[in-house]
What does this fold into?
Amino acid sequence: MSTTTENARPTGPASGSWQAGVLGGIVGAAVMGALVVVMNPPTVGVAIPSLYGLAPPQNAAAGLVVHVSHGAVLGVVFAGIVGAADLDSTGKQVGVGAVWGVVTWAVLAALVMPAWLGAVGSPANPPLPNFAPPSLLWHAVYGVVLGGVYAGVEGRF
It folds into this structure.
């Protein structure tokens, strides 16, 4: 007679917890948003809401809503990455979160956002590319918080 043990934790591309990704993305974007508000208020008040025609005039509330929404969506993408790579340790998830934050900075903040703001005629249009060091810090913090929250709540939904 033989016995087998099955692993109840799914693996592969569909195994990342999208709910943990959403929550991690929201918390990460909120922490990042607080840093941005302290360090460069026009980014939240003008640049981010300008992406969707919600500024000018300055509208920090709309900017924060847009920013946190973006963070939630990017958190779901992060969850897919974690699931596809089958990363099951907190350290790996936080580390990949940090890398994910840097990737979002390099691609979305430095390239896509300036092009988008230029296309919509925003007065807050930065140069293209815009590899601003403070923005790198903000996005790295987003990724670390995202990875930490994800690791803390994954499997609890």
Observations:
- Residues 90-119 form the longest helix (30 residues).
- The chain has one domain: 18-153.
- The helical segments are 18-39, 41-50, 60-85, 90-119, 133-153.
